[in-house]
Amino acid sequence: MKKRNWIAYPHIVWMAIFVLVPVFIVLYYSIVSISDNGIQLTLKHFARVFEPLYLNVFIRSIELALISTAICLLLGYPAAMILASKNLSKRNMLIVLVIIPMWMNFLARTYAWMTLLERNGLIDTIVKAIGLPPLNIMYTDYAVVLGMVYNFLPFMILPIYSVLSKTNKSVIEAAEDLGATPMVTFKRIVFPLSLPGVMSGITMVFLPAVTTFVISELLGGGQYTLIGNLIQQQFTLTMDWGFGSALSIFLMILILISMGIMSKYEKENEGGGLW
Amino acid sequence: MQDEIIRLSNISKNYGANETLKNINLYILRNEFLTLLGPSGCGKTTTLRIIGGFEQPTKGEILFEGVNINTLPPFKRRVNTVFQKYALFTHMDVYENIAFGLKIKKLDKKTIENKVTEMLELVNLPGYEKRSVDSLSGGEQQRIAIARALVNEPEVLLLDEPLGALDLKLRKGMQIELKNIQQRTGITFVYVTHDQEEALTMSDTIAVMKNGTIQQIGTPADIYNEPKNAFVADFIGESNIISGTMIEDCLVEFSGHRFECVDKGFGNSEKVDVVIRPEDVKLVDAQEGMIEGIVKSVVFKGVHYEMIILCNNLLWKVHSTVMEPVNSRVGMRILPNDIHTMKKVLDE
Hints:
By secondary structure, chain A is mainly α.
């Protein structure tokens, strides 16, 4: 094994150039102020992060991401169970159906939702046709959550499916044999055994959801600023790289903490999911 | 009257076009150790799963204490199963595994604790309560699986090749331990195995199965000494199976010689299979034998030598504690009692 270590070198070099170095550049920008007087160390960018205006953006982003993650879990877990059930003849086809949307460009998919949701779009036309008032959810939180759920649902389904399909069927039979009804079997055996997959799914949905800026910009109409939008604006509109970097670092710290908490749960039952 | 606890009546099971079980009839007595024995694919595990409630028979009835339980789901049956690969709950410790069934029955905490402790003593693993399942060896996991099933005090315990994954020595030890547990608890055991020696060691009754049918049911001694057909004879222990002709009652001809035997009731000149156990052939000097042959090979097996002897174009397997050198001529004598004749099985 040791002899082949050099195989990893290209990867290490790649990671160093394109991950580590940029992180340090961001870190650098977040703690200096560049003015005519030269470069000075400062914490003023981080101080701004904690202004209520911006903290609220964080809270809103986390809130929407949590809601989306919860919906993904509620929709994804039963879907994964169906996929993993043993009497499914068209399993592979259904799995492909789950994955196919991911083959399409992310932006194209989100633009497609815009056409569906917009005033007098396809969905409102149908709703009106059956005599209900138009939904008008374009450019609302609902649209943003819908976009997140749609885009990230496969990342919830697949890790849970992967764990469920590996669950030993005789363990489930053993529980029934010992007197557990199907409900109790699910609560005490199936669900606890699938927790590693659930944790992977939550991480893989929550992370992109909390950092997205495309979905909120397109479906939220830009009026509902999320943390992703805020960071993007600092780099493209206001050109305040220092503040943008501080926001990024703060977000990174939040994510690291939440992943740390997740991995604590995951460690107990390793080997689940796609990580 | 014998106390019958389970009866399978004309049970058949099809998977698509595959007939896994064909008209199985079997009754199981209270407190007996019954073994379903057969090669893989003979339907023994399916039979067990039908009793456990994990499979539904395509045809036929399964009666528990005289009541039809065909559609009763597993969690309502008063039987418990020890699964082939133990199927322990890996996210729980030993205590929680064993207590699982009791907690579902909502027994109070103190009773559960006492019963679990008692069970761990029964399976010789006292003090293992807090161990995680993954840290146990195969043999220990096996005992936990048995304890988890037994603690519910089932009327019948079903065991699906429970010792299959253990090494020989451990397996032998567990065989005796299982038999002890069965005798101490007085619970009916239905045991599935493909290991004839295991079946002979532990069972009160053996049902030999092949291709979804029961070939013979009887005590281990019956089955070993009086196999009903060539398949059973061959599966239970080693045997020489020779084609012969029944000349008349108590006289059979094979290998060019007429032998006295004890079997009656065949037609005169009926073709039969003759089964002779390797240990029942006595080797004598060439001229003193009923038939004679040439030793082709000798293998030392520990207690005895196994010799292959060519006689009348047939190879005989013979066990003897005395070795005859290769290529020597030997005579063979067989006592009337050791000659087992049986009807030819035509279709195979």
